[in-house]
Amino acid sequence: MSSRNKILARWDSLWVIRGELSRRTYLMFALFGMLVPLAAWWGVSVSGWMDKVFMPGPMDVVSRAYTWFMEDELSHDIWISTYRVLAGFTLSAVLAIPIGLMIGTYRPVQAMLEPLTDFIRYMPAVAFIPLVMLWVGIDESSKIAIIFIGTFFQMVLMVAEDVRRVPITQIEAAQTMGASRAEIVSLVIVPSAKPALLDTLRVTMGWAWTYLVVAELVAANSGLGYSILRAQRFMQTDKIFAGIILIGLIGLTIDQLFRWLHRRNFPWMYKK
User: Is residue 52 part of a domain?
Assistant: First the structure.
């Protein structure tokens, strides 16, 4: 086989449906996917097609992030925003997982709670801001409450769906062996649903970060979302870009942590 044919065969093998990639190949594609948008952004910024007020270049954003870190308490903004997101997300998970488990397991609970949850989840979280300010106040609890509202109802329904995907044959086998309902839930349903539940937590963590800017509308004086909103008032587009990118980087780091936990806890799902 000629070198050209070998290259073509190798290239074709990369595009097998649900095929496998070596870690090196995966990282090369990932790097390419990150660098192409960055290069396009740099090209637009230096072309002169758009004023830098509206489209700052990558180095302008890096320079602004450095100034923000050195002179304007960027580390505190990152910490307080991360705290708000993690607190709201953790509260959602602590309540949503058992409720979703009950909805996915017992039909009466599903009939009582699923329509109500479906109804509320379509209400925009930002619409609750006046009520949150009235009921909770304007301290940290209000920011956490908005993130909670934005993630809780979605998480309940996703957990319920994960539980419903547990094969009925496993439940019937446990019933045949005389397992009680509590034993079926704790020894069959929960262990079988764990991989999907961890994926659900990973997805909803991303949603929690998307609600950060909304949460920091509520009388905030610090945080990445607050800084983005404040920069908009003063036309500091480079700071807006820096804040958005920082949120993305933090979110990506947390997402990769969830992926690592998934691989560590369920290694059999990644064997060829």
Answer: no
Instruction: Write the CA distances from 53 to 23, 48, 103, 165, 230, integer angstroms.
Output: 40, 11, 51, 50, 15
Q: How many domains does the chain have?
A: 2
Q: Is residue 173 part of a domain?
A: yes
- Examine the domain organization and report whether 30 and 162 are in the same domain: no
Residues of the chain with pLDDT > 90: what percent?
A: 44
Q: How confident is the model at residue 246 (pLDDT cuts 50, 70, 90)?
A: very high
Question: What's the domain range around 40?
Answer: 3-46
Q: Does residue 51 belong to any structural domain of this protein? A: no
The pLDDT mean for the chain works out to: 88
Cβ-based neighbour number of residue 127 at 10 Å = 9
Predicted TM-score of the model (pTM): 0.86
